From TrEMBL:
It is a multi-pass membrane protein. It comes from Gordonia rubripertincta (Rhodococcus corallinus). Residues 17-429 form the Major facilitator superfamily (MFS) profile domain. The lineage of its organism: Bacteria, Bacillati, Actinomycetota, Actinomycetes, Mycobacteriales. Its main location: membrane. It comes from the Bacteria. InterPro entries: H+-coupled_symporters, MFS, MFS_dom, MFS_trans_sf. GO terms for cellular component: plasma membrane. This is MFS transporter. Keywords: Cell membrane, Membrane, Symport, Transmembrane, Transmembrane helix, Transport.
Amino acid sequence: MTDSATPAPSAAIVRRASLAGFLGTVVESYDFFVYTYLIVYTAPLFFPSDDKVVSVLSSLLVLGSGFLSRPLGGLFFGRLGDRKGRRLTLMVTIIGMGVATAAMGLLPTYEAIGVAAPLLLVLFRLCQGFAAGGELAGSTTFVSEHATKNNHGLLSTITPLGFSAGTAIAPAVVAALAAVLSEDVMGDWGWRIPMLLSIPLTLTCLLLRLGLEDSPEFKRLAAEHKVPRTPVRDLISGHWPQLAKVTLLSAAVLMIGYIVAAFIPLFLQDQAGFAPGTTAAMATVSGIAAIVFTLVAGLVIDRLGRRTLMFVLLGAVAVLFYPILSLMQANDGNVIVAVLGFAVLGGLGGAAASPAYAALTATFPARVRYTGAALGFGLGSAIGGGFGPWLSAQLTETTGNIYSPAFLAIAASLIGMAVIATLPSRGVSTDDGEFVLPGEDAGLAADKIDAT
């Protein structure tokens, strides 16, 4: 979103910034999802119970707790990013996520330290979520602010692409370990390895970010002495309708994505009889499908626009989710049906994030962009990501209807389509409320975008 008064960054700088944003969201999604695929091993260790369902539900609540701290993280890091710069803030967030995940991997179990074990697990999960609250929105902001009018949508896809990659890597690591280690060893200490692998991932991303400058957009704000003193107050007073829309859009997309990634593996284990290692391998295929679908979405978003692409993808989710879930259950133990169904749902859910993340940053002017994107995404994460998987499991247990997650995903799709219909399909917001093509001055009438 470079301004006309600011020289466009070189292709090499754009590539490095894109790689840094990509790796950051790989780390974020890996850290969050690796816990999900280890629940079958960690649930009895931290939440021992005679009822397996109680242990799993308790573990899913811990999963959700990480999302509850995201809005606070979004508020804190969003303000920091708009006041002190995107680069510095993103280095802090990546360190925070890596340290929290490694601490979870080193945590003693309930048998060793009693009730302190689940309490510390929740604490580290909250810390992880707090740091993650500023990561994805910050990465999207940082990368998209290197864009021109020809590639804003494509660059905005870098972060959901990294998110999809993380969702593929996490189950792949768990599946590989489950294939070489026995069930007893995985339950004893093998589950710690995937969490500790976050350390080299974090260090790699941190070193890359150390070699970058801040985004052209933030450097322009600093040069023009337009860096806000009170970005949170400015956001709430001047852009609260946009914040509400971004929150709802994020909640809808994340509800779908996390139901697919966090609940479907448990559904396949309980309803289709697959082993945890098998469902982890299937989740890897689903993550790869998400990468492919997201790449395609990134290639067409600048041509189709955010709104049209979102309608197509969320419409497909609404139409296909229930039939695919019922086919998985009806074909009990059929690997091909399970893999294909998981891949289609994962691909559609991952690709839907592309126009959503593009809208996330384009909706706010540069002065409050990080704060608006991070707070809106954090609130949406708490609603959609935090309660989606747990609510799916709870509704299934309470009603006895194994297809409850499908109805949640359909409702989320309809909400997402309703919200995106109220947002501009192209362009980025300026301080005066206009939408212009990235890289162009707000005064160029030919490049103004109709916001209706």
